[in-house]
User: What shape does this take?
Amino acid sequence: MSCPSLRLGAMGVLLLAGSACRNEDAYLGGSKGTYRCEARCEFEQGAPADAGDWFFNPESERGKAPQIVYPLDGAVHPRDLRQLTVQFRRGRSDFQVFRVRVEAAGAGVAYDFFTPCLAVGDDGCRYMLSGRVWDDARAELVGKAAVLTVTGATALHGVMKSSPPVSLDLVEGNLENKGFYYWTTVNNYVDDKSTAGIYRLPFGADQAEPFIMPNTKTNTRQCGACHSVSRDGSTIAFTARDIEGGPEDQRSGSLVAALTAQPEIHVIDAATPGTYDSSMMALSTDGKRVLVAYDQQLVLRSSEANGSIPGGAVIASLSKADLGGKIGYFPEFSPDDRAVALTLTLPEQTDSAIAVRAGDIAVIDVDLSNGTFGSPRTLVPDTGDFHFYPTWSPNGDYIAFASAPHGAGDDGNPRKSYDQKLAHLQLVRVEDGTVFDLGNATHEDGKWSTYPKFAPFTSGSPTLSFLTFNSKIDYGLIQDNSAKPDAQKVAQLWMSAIDVARLPEDPSSPPIWLPFQDPTQPGHLGLWTKDVKCRTDVGGSPCAFGQVCVNQVCLVRPK
Amino acid sequence: MIRLPFLVDDYFIPNGCFGDVDCKGGVISIDNHGCEDVPQTAQSGCRLYSYKPSPAGTPGHQNYLGILFQDVGPGGESQIGKVPPLPIQPGAKRSVFWAKVGAGPQKVAFRAGGANNWDGNTDPSLPYKDTFGVPGDVTLTEDFQQIVIDLSGVEYRDVVSPFGWAIEDATDQVDLYIADVRWE
Assistant: This one.
């Protein structure tokens, strides 16, 4: 019988007391190290009090090491996000305690979190980083090249084994207290039904609050999904429609607009049932104009609460003839409101009121002072792929969008933009139409990565911004979409950093999961605003739990 | 098989309801977003359960209401007794969680196990039940407290409901907050 040579771990001072034979761990004796848990350390419930001492053991050569599944390697995490749930495969089954270490070795900074394996999936573990120590870690590690490792230990006098490191880039996001609105469903549990609606939160809050909910004063109809929120956070618009008893397609939709401070008091109220006047829409940056796409036309309407043009009044219309014989979908105003990005498609390539089977990304100049539009300029022509859901970068120099190849889908019908499995993310430079693939953000093909929306703010770096989108990629082990048939996969909201300084290389980072979501419920249509306005149309608190209203704006209360 | 320790929320949902007017008519609402403060150490979610008792003497009034965490049946079933159990690694020592009420003191009967076997009451016509039910009666206040149900010595393999609660004799609305339910 031959025995392997022994390797001593780099950490701690070891007493070499013996050796081991094949298929056994080397007995290396006890550790002399004593871990002192000070400000950069935390023990999870169930971890032994001396867990820190377990990690002076030598690295074992036997068995599998833990493997980090989430976060994704190279992901960029804005400091403003207060939670990060690390998920990893446990490796050896006899690991009893794990050390989650976030370290910037070059700066001599390391934070340790000791935890048992809180089971998830077949062989996985989860540990949510949150609270004061993680707050301190994010603050101290911002801008430093940090890596995340997970080490499993078998016993105080046992062995340990570490995962390959995952790079963790913490940046100043400048996203805290910016507004985020999105559509999701909420499980009611006891009546086998779920409620769908538009939720909102100031970024950094732990949870979102219901905002535009069906069959309430905020939306008297049964459904409200397609929505737009002005960048200044003042105004929301959405398509309200009845599902039961109404037409089956989206042509029953009616435009509603309201100040976000008073969502129960509508600036534009839903038209009489049966009226079709809205599918998808875009609000101007100040919320005073809304450009509505429906019924093969674009209609500019006033959404002013107290302006010279009454809310709801039609200011201008763009017909197919005005758009070069094409139909406009998915409009979004540029940050300076001087242009609109949209998808243009031929009439025979439309799929429904909210979906196309072909399309270019185009830009139309607009002058909102007099309600006039220029001629469309195609930025990204439909060739082998068609393009949809354009969104402007914070300074208007780039437009991100989704693309998918022409052809038949799994159902045999021509592929369409809505719920498109093969959708992936791209970026076009407005100045010259050069297209760049956002492969890191898309992360995996065939995962419905779509509906991108730029956060309209640059981060601590002038070239770095953030792009949210919905996707059915796996959320680590917690939402294992890969293991499910397509119909059961759950879309979630993800966010990628876009650093245009990296062009012409892929400027996007692997995405991060937005932690205020319920991973069992779908999340779609995320939209950013400058802030979240305090509500003035309800009694009690004008902001949700954990927030405080300051100068008419909801702010996350420091913990 | 679900390994220990685990967060109950990762495998079960609060879909098993019993009591007043068969849980219809808005006597119970469950809000995933209803917790103003969450214990700092929580690794999983916090929910607000709002129980509005039906008036005594009205049809369906039973003077109690309870919620059990279960899996979802293969056909979408949630009725207690119709949801199959899940295998859980033997050897759990305790179920531990945080709880408080909006206005206390309020007695709450917590339970590990007990599906179709609450205090030994079983409907034999239903296909599934827990083989055990460990009570944990607690009087809650407006402050979160960590509660432990001792599972040492409990023999089990397949579990329908690892956690549940019931409230009796309430006449006014009870707001019950529960966070971070674990089996360890």
